[in-house]
Specification:
The structure is a homodimer. By secondary structure, chain A is of the alpha+beta class. The first copy, chain A, has six helices and five strands, in the order H-H-H-H-E-E-E-E-H-E-H. In chain A, a hairpin with a 4-residue loop joins strand 1 and strand 2. The structure holds a DNA duplex. Chains A, B: It is found in: Cytoplasm. Chains A, B: Keywords: Cytoplasm, DNA-binding, Iron, Metal-binding, Repressor, Transcription, Transcription regulation, Zinc.
Chain lengths: 158, 158
DNA sequence: GCAGATTAGGTTATAATGTTGCAATTCTAC
DNA sequence: GTAGAATTGCAACATTATAACCTAATCTGC
C-alpha cells in the first residue's frame, strides 16, 4: 500500500516525486509535459485533498497562465489518460495518483470532514470485478470504488 | 444476488414490486409516498438504465406535474434517503434499488454501450471497507462501487 | 531550413447538473 | 378548526463540463 498520509510525511517530497515520475512517464510515452500540464499536476498535488477543476482556474490565472475551463480540463484529461491523476467521481474532483504507470483499479478513502483522501490497494477490488464477470457474463473495463467517512484526526475530534 | 436483468423477465412486475415495497416502507417509517414521489419512482424504474434527473422533468411535465429541477431532486432525495433508489455517481444518474429496506453497500455494473445497470451483492465489498478501517484507522460511512464495461449482449455485438 | 502534418492552447459560448431561498399549500395532530 | 410541520411551487442562481472554431507551437520527413 502507498504511504499512509495520515502519518507525518514530507509533502514537498510527494510533489517532487509526482512531477519527476510524470516527466519520466511522458518521456517514455513520447508525449509532452507542457508548463500548463506540469503546473496543473503540481496544483493537484498541493495537498492530499481532491481538488475541483474550477478551484485550479484562479491559481493558474494568478501565475499568468491562461485560465478558462477548457485549459484546465484539457490538462486534467491529459493527466488522467496517463494515470497521473485520478478523478473522485463522487466529489467531481481530482487527486494525484500515488503510483502512476501501474495499471490498477483505484480505491479511495475520503474524509467527509477534512477532505483528505488516501489511495488504497486491495486485492478484493479485482475479486469484485471478476465475480461480476462470472455471474453476469459481462466484461468489466473500469472500476470505481470510493469510501467516505472520517479520518483518524476527524474521528478523534468528533 | 438480485435477479439478473440480462435474462428475460417481466419488467412490469419489477415496477409493481418496487412501488409496493415503497408503499410498505413509507408506511413503516411514517412518511408519505406522495403522487410526485411515486411517479418519480415509477419513472426511475421504467427500465434498468440509470436515468438523469433532467430526463425526468419533461416526462413529469407531460403528465401535468410540476417540473422544475427542485421538484425532481426533492423526490429523488426522498427516495435516496429511504434507500428506494441509488445514485450512480459516475453517470450523474439514478436507478431503482432492487432490495430496499436492507442497509447494504451498493455495487453496480453499468454497460457503457446500452446503459443497462445491474445491482450486485458482494461479500468482498465490506471486506474492502473493513480493510481500510484497519489499515488507516478511519471510519467508513459510505461505500460506492461502480463497474463499467460491456453487458453480455453488447459484448457479443462487438 | 522548409512544407505539411500534428499537437497544444486561446476564446467564446453554451450545455448539463444541482442548489438556495422563500412563499404558498397541504397535511397531521391536537 | 387551528397551529405546526411537511410538502410543493417558483425564480433565480451556482457548479461542473463540453462544443466549436480558430491560432500558435512543435514535430517529421525531406
Amino acid at each position: 500500500m502507498s504511504q499512509n498520509i495520515y502519518k507525518h510525511h514530507d509533502h514537498h517530497a510527494c510533489i517532487d516525486t509526482a512531477v519527476s515520475r510524470a516527466r519520466d512517464l511522458c518521456q517514455e510515452k513520447g508525449v509532452r509535459l507542457t508548463p500548463i500540464r506540469q503546473r496543473v499536476l503540481e496544483l493537484v498535488w498541493a495537498n492530499h485533498k481532491p481538488v475541483g477543476a474550477y478551484d485550479l482556474l484562479p491559481r493558474l490565472a494568478e501565475e499568468g497562465f491562461n485560465s478558462a475551463p477548457p485549459t484546465v480540463y484539457r490538462a486534467l484529461d491529459f493527466l488522467l489518460d496517463l494515470g497521473l491523476v485520478h478523478r473522485i467521481t463522487s466529489l467531481n474532483a481530482f487527486i494525484g495518483c500515488t503510483h502512476p504507470g501501474e495499471d490498477h483499479p483505484t480505491c479511495f478513502f475520503v474524509c467527509r470532514q477534512c477532505g483528505q483522501a488516501q489511495e488504497l490497494d486491495s486485492a478484493e477490488m479485482s475479486d469484485i470485478a471478476r465475480q461480476a464477470e462470472a455471474r453476469l457474463g459481462v466484461v468489466v473495463e473500469q472500476q470505481i470504488t470510493e469510501l467516505l467517512g472520517l479520518c483518524p484526526a476527524c474521528k478523534g475530534a468528533a
